[in-house]
Amino acid sequence: MRVTTTVKIPHSIMPEDGRFGSGPSKVRPEQIAALEAGTTTLMGTSHRQAPVKQLVGSIRSGLSDFFRLPDGYEIALGNGGASAFWEIACASLITRRAAFGTYGSFSAKFATSAANAPFLEKPALFASDPGTYRLPEFTEGVDAYCWAHNETSTGVAAPVRRVPGSQESGALTIIDGTSAAGALPVDISQTDVYYFSPQKAFGSDGGLWVAVLSPAAIERAERVESSAHLDGVRRWVPPFLSLTSALANSRKDQTLNTPSVANLIMMENQVRWLNDNGGLDWATARCAKSASLLYSWAEQSSYAQPFVADPAARSHSVVTIDLDEHVQANQVLAILRENGIVDCAGYRKLGRNQLRIGVFPSVEPADVVNLTKCIDYVVDRL
Asked: Which terminal CB of the chain, N or C, has fewer other CB atoms within 10 Å?
């Protein structure tokens, strides 16, 4: 039997929108309106025809402007989400051996994919405890250096800069930007591949991956997919995992396989909204403001504290807050949910008494302030 709470949060301190998920994240009403507007012209139509291709073209052009792409860099996209891109990178980008920085669930999953690929050598792992990060170090024989810009499971943000000596050795820098892209500053020239799925800062659904590719990454994919492996056998790359096929289709403003047109509509609307408001600089400043409000509140609280000890490593997109033992996060979360404030739970596998709050660009900083008031109100009445 479901037990309801008797704690009713006053309307005066409630956020206007109670969605604070770390992905899927808040979808703006204007994105839903764009779906409704596209019901007759886009939804239920062929993705090979001009209307949908123009939509994809707008996404690619908008992201090029948003990330201020260096000359020669291209936007590619395909189905499957960032999880699929890990396999694409193993199949099409890593020649022999990769090095990984691992400091949470998602940064470790890509490394696991590389370790399980029968045609790759055992990866070099540079690991640190949750709540910290560690970048891979230069390693002889490594041709790809990989880590996450933002570890979604722990709320840790890591620097994006090439490993010294890696570019001179011909190695690629491959960065998972899933919960960072659109929320954290990034110099794309410091990467060869910056990939993400759109259910975070871009306020859309999963099932799609987007990758910013350097000329070196494009050349690597072409070479890996066409060349023989170490034992003289050509590497088998399934079409779904072929980065060259994805890029060839992207250049035609389409995907290899049928995409979710609704997802494309929402993402295109979000990219235009971000660019119209000032692009990456505006988005990252907005997220930094919201994150700062949460960290300052936690530092001043008698029962909460930021999980990430190093202020320089604290994420500005996914904020993790530890609660003291006498305040049970599950109880606080249940009451918040019954009052319409949702998706603030910590990452389950981390197993901490914790709140995890997404502060992507769609989240209003004023709503973040009211969230802290609501949490205080609930805790005072437990």
From this structure: N
